[in-house]
Design goal:
Helix content is about 30%, strand content about 15%. It has helices at about 5, 40-50, 60-75, 140-160, 180-190, 225-235, 245-250, 260-265, 295-310; strands at about 80, 90, 100-105, 115-120, 130, 135, 165-175, 195-205, 215-220, 240, 270. The protein is α/β, with parallel strands linked by helices. Strands 1, 2, 3, 4, 7, 8, 9, 10 and 11 form a nine-stranded mixed beta sheet that branches. It has a two-stranded antiparallel sheet with strand order 5-6.
Length: about 325
């Protein structure tokens, strides 16, 4: 997550206590979470993306090239087509060859398929960094191999079941750590192409559970749209909520959702379980696979699958910006 200017100070404030979240709309509907994703499947993908072999997945590096090939192959195996000529969307705003990986799954409704939903996560990290105890690889297991792994699981589900009425783009963003460059590039490109974008949904740092039991995740830009209320209503439980840190450190602007909000003026938000108290190795070599919780990640993914499915298949654009 591009928290360099947001988190550096916050990580020192380990004694801070989260305040009570504001009351939300009581869930009106219930949806059983699917049991599609498993800790074993999550762990297999996550352990590779966070492995030393990929050398921290720095944009433009040999390590991230291996990750790109892995993600391209996964899209092929799950019947996703390239949205452009290939799965690779070459960045126009970075000085090294870098690529967003973009897969396309056409909607199955004759009318709604002309509208799009984007589901994404950044797959880059910071590469080789200052060594700690002889380890100089910023593996980025939580940041953001965890979010990327969530997207791979959704690709497997929707690629197999093809239940989406609207068309889907699954995107792995590059150069997020350089200033959201991958998402800025793609958002402008798709806007210039006049894509009819309904909403964008982004995963960031979901590798370990929050230190609270009143929500599973928080969602950035909480009050900007009705997405949180819709998610919780569909789920029939409090899946997402608000934490004060997201406002204090402007997290809505800190990840790949934000360029889609600014370009399209549509709901574009990020979910995360990094709550500033549950993980101390942000941008450090100890952000390793061994500290991640695949059971927690599979739970997040399984609860979000039916929610996202219902959101993307609504007959009208129910997810909307709130009036200012």
């Amino acid at each position: 997550m591009k928290f360099t200017q947001f988190i550096a100070v916050a990580l020192l404030i380990t004694s801070c206590k989260s305040t009570q979240v504001s009351n939300e709309t009581v869930a009106q509907e219930t949806t059983q979470s699917v049991m599609f994703s498993t800790p074993k499947s999550v762990g297999a993908t996550l352990s590779y993306l966070a492995s030393d072999e990929l050398e921290g997945r720095d944009s433009g590096s040999a390590g991230i090239e291996k990750a790109a090939v892995f993600l391209e192959n996964l899209m092929k195996q799950n019947d996703l087509k390239p949205y452009f000529k290939t799965y690779r969307d070459t960045l126009s705003n970075f000085d090294k060859p870098s690529y967003n990986i973009v897969g396309y799954l056409e909607g199955n409704d004759p009318k709604l398929k002309n509208e799009f939903v984007i589901i994404g996560a950044h797959y880059d990290h910071i590469g080789r960094i200052k060594a700690v105890n002889g380890d100089d690889i910023g593996n980025g297991a939580n940041d953001n191999a965890s979010g990327s792994t969530a997207v791979t699981e959704l690709i497997k589900y929707f690629g197999k079941n093809k239940v989406n009425k609207r068309s889907l783009l699954f995107v792995f963003f590059s150069a997020e750590e350089k200033g959201l460059l991958g998402s800025k590039h793609l958002a402008k490109k798709l806007h210039d192409d006049k894509m009819d974008l309904y909403f964008m949904f982004n995963f960031e740092m979901i590798g370990v559970p929050m230190k609270r039991d009143d929500m599973l995740m928080y969602i950035t830009g909480f009050g900007k749209t009705n997405m949180a209320d819709k998610i919780n209503a569909i789920a029939g439980e409090k899946l997402v909520g608000y934490i004060p840190m997201q406002t204090q450190y402007q997290l809505f602007r800190a990840s790949d959702n934000y360029p889609f909000y600014t370009e399209f003026n549509v709901p574009a938000q990020t979910v995360s379980t990094f709550d500033f108290e549950n993980f101390q190795y942000y941008h450090q070599p100890d952000d390793e696979f061994e500290l991640m919780k695949p059971e927690h990640m599979a739970n997040v993914i399984n609860k979000m699958i039916p929610v996202l499915e219902q959101m993307m298949n609504a007959p009208t654009k129910e997810i909307q910006l709130n009036e200012k």
